Amino acid sequence: MKEFQYYNPTKVVFGTGEYKQLGKEVNNYGSSALLIEQEGPLEEMGVFKQAIAYMESCGIKVFELKGITSNPKLSKIEEGILAAKKNQIEVIVAVGGGSSIDTAKAISFGAPSDTDVWDFFSRKRQIDRALPVVAVSTISATGAETSCHCVVTNDRNEDSKKWQKWAVHDAFAFPKTAIIDPELLVTVPKRLTAAGMADTISHVIEGYFDGVPDNPVSDRIGEGIVMTVLENDGVLENLGDTSKRGALSWAATLAMSGLQDCGRSNAGFPAHWIQHAVGAMTDSSHGEGLAVINPAWLEFENKKNPEKFVQFTERVFGIEREKGTSDVEYGKLGLQALKDKFKSWGLPVTLRELGVKEEMLEEIAENVLKAPETYVFEKAHILEVLRSCY
Question: Other CB atoms closer than 10 Å to residue 86's CB: what's the count?
Answer without folding.
Answer: 10
